[in-house]
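ARCHIVE CARD
Drawer: 12
Card no.: 0347
Subject: one protein chain, sequence and derived structure
Cross-reference: see card 0346
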Amino acid sequence: MRFHDIPFRKILIAPAALLLAGGLCCSPPHVRTGSIAEGRRGHVVDTARQYLGTPYRYGGENPNGFDCSGFVMFVYSKNGLRLPRATVEQYRSGRPVSRRALGPGDLVFFSIYGGRISHVGIYAGNGSFIHAPSSGKRVSYAHLENSYWKTRYAGAVSFFTAGRRPYFSNLSKN
């Protein structure tokens, strides 16, 4: 068969099918955007606890030092979800959740410098959250009822979806 005998449609469809298949099987299942299964909440908090005491470092996003959004991004990536780097983008990417509906692993946000969202932490339950506070400090717990945080609370978001399977969950089924 010569090239000009192959229908034009097959020439276009074959590469498109290869690209699509490559995207499905080559995308790492351990890092995705979207949501995490509800049952992973405790894992996110446990991961955050592992880094208690890590020094704050402006722009830091690894165990040598974290800033607030770098800490959140790192912890979530260890649990299979890629989040944006910037605090405000993390806020915009999640599903809003009321303060009374907060669950472990949800993200809590604060306005430290006026009206803009400028700080984030990982809710740990019972009114506490884990965060990378500021220069000279270390990753630690804080409480939402603390007067400093209470007056600066700006909202919360969740990346957990009840009743919905995480991406790639069906790939291993027979």
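Annotation on reverse: Confidence is low (pLDDT under 50) at residues 8-33, 163-174. Strands lie at 36-37, 61-62, 65-66, 95-96, 107-110, 119-125, 128-131, 140-143, 153-158, 160-161.
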